[in-house]
Amino acid sequence: MSSLITLTSDFGVQDHYVGVMKAVILSICPNARMIDISHDIPPQDIMAGAWVVRNSAMLFPPRSVHLVVVDPGVGTQRKPVAMKIRDQLFVGPDNGIFSLIADEHDHYSVELKNSDFWRSDPSSTFHGRDIFAPVAAHLANGTGIDELGDPLESLETYRWAVPISDKDGIQGWVVHIDRFGNLVTNIPEEMIRETGTEAQLKIYVGNTILDKIVETFGSVTEGEPAAYIGSAGMLEIAINKGDAHKMLGVEKGAQISIVIQK
After folding, report:
1. Which of 130, 151, 172 is the last residue of a domain?
2. pLDDT exceeds 90 at position 200
3. How high is the pLDDT of residue 199?
4. What domain count does the chain have?
5. CATH of the domain at 140
6. How far apart are CA 226 and CA 217, in angstroms?
7. Confidence label for 55 from pLDDT (cuts 50, 70 and 90)
8. Among 18, 25, 90, 211, which is disulfide-ready with 83 (CB 3.0 to 4.6 Å)?
9. Which residues make Cβ contacts (< 8 Å) with residue 1, sequence separation at least 6?
């Protein structure tokens, strides 16, 4: 049985928050192996967290437990939940943080109602320490998900706008900006392929126009912008050895247009 627990949060590493969650986990599951996926999710940015979870969780070994805490609604009526997708387990708030991965996979979820698996007298502002970390540890110890609470019919769902495709091209949006300043769009590779491999394209990104999709950002001259298919299977815009977010002046939510030249 795996005792591997991943941690994803917006806590950063300046404060004690991540460390005490690990302390709680080890007090319940001393043999836990813990992997930090990211603690640099922008504060309260649920969809940025959802993107990180979507692109990482399913790569881990069977019965890995994914502890995800991006929780601006802590202490409110939002539900604490556990979820199972295939042989992967997830613990976190029901606030949309699992939107993207649950949208792509069949899943089963429960509301965490059994306080026997929490720390006693939980804080209203730190469920990561008092509810989610202990539940993750119990799951890693082999506790069944149904022991934790009652089944849920559905989870809270956020969705990015769907890119629009027609005979003239594709319109999408920047949905994520990584730490390198690369602009990740919601335009999947297969949608671009459907335009036809012989099509001449112009890609409009802010005030910049690109005329082709290259293999990688290293395919262009240093300091130049590049459009390419990133590791998540989406169109991305980068600057070779630069920061596209800053250099192109493009923010999350900006429109990206691909126009087919006829």
Report:
1. 151
2. no
3. 64
4. 2
5. 3.40.50.10790
6. 5
7. very high
8. 90
9. 63, 142
